[in-house]
Amino acid sequence: MIPTRTRPYGCIPTKLCTANSQAINNLIQVTAHISWRSIAAMDVMDFYGDESCCHGGDHFLVIGGIAIPQIQVSSMEDRLRAVRATHPKHLANSEVKWSNTSRAVLNFYKEFSDVFFDAAKNGEAKFTSLCMDKRTFNHKTYNAGDPDIGFNKMVYQLLLHKVGKVWGKTHRITVKLDHRTSKDDPNELCPMLNHHLKRQGIDTSPFKRIEFKDSKKSELIQLNDLLIGTLGANHNKKTGAAHKQELADHIMKQAKNTCHPKSIYGWSATTFKVWPFEFRGR
């Protein structure tokens, strides 16, 4: 992180001799070089995000994602593919989605979700999310009648408060969102997020890229779909068939057992967090 300047570089007292002034200038240049080099050497945190219950008559919307150091991504994807390899191809080769949960894939989906919780226990990954009541979000009043604007606002809130403020001082951050139909480029959020963080003392411009990614080509976005799908179903009290309820119970039990203390709500939650978001514009 670049050291905070207590006064402008130009405010060097005039009584300093030329030699001392040159020494100070040299020190400034060396310090700046070291600071920028340290930023370049920062670890990269990848965040794989998506939303659940965005459409239809559900009251609660969940937006959440898995945060994982980029250096761990390949290893975790290998573990997910290894789980696929232990199940029949006609089941394991299809896209993993909460909405695709059936009795036939129940054990496969349980083992697939367990890869996250095993990684979380080892400090390799975390899940963070935002849950809000859509009835409190008036698109006509606050979003020019455009739900896409409302969705981007919620993504912005999650990335700012639960990703940028948490990892921005120590990591560069890249965000991969499940591809959705949108006229907006999600990367436009980067400068706004970095500007907001700078005003709060995080001046490393941590957000480097926000992009859409095809979920069919991402094991981690598919894994995240199970987690946010479970949360969405629980909050909307719509787990549905018995096999979906069994999967939801399994994931929620794992989530609570992984957190210390065993709560997924509030600031004390650790590896699996849910932020009950309340829209202030009501």
UniProtKB/TrEMBL annotation:
Q: Which domain of life does this protein belong to?
A: Bacteria
Report any Pfam family annotated for this entry: DUF3800
Kindly give the InterPro entries that the UniProt entry links to this protein. DUF3800
What is this protein's record name?
Answer: DUF3800 domain-containing protein
Q: Which organism is it from?
A: Variovorax gossypii
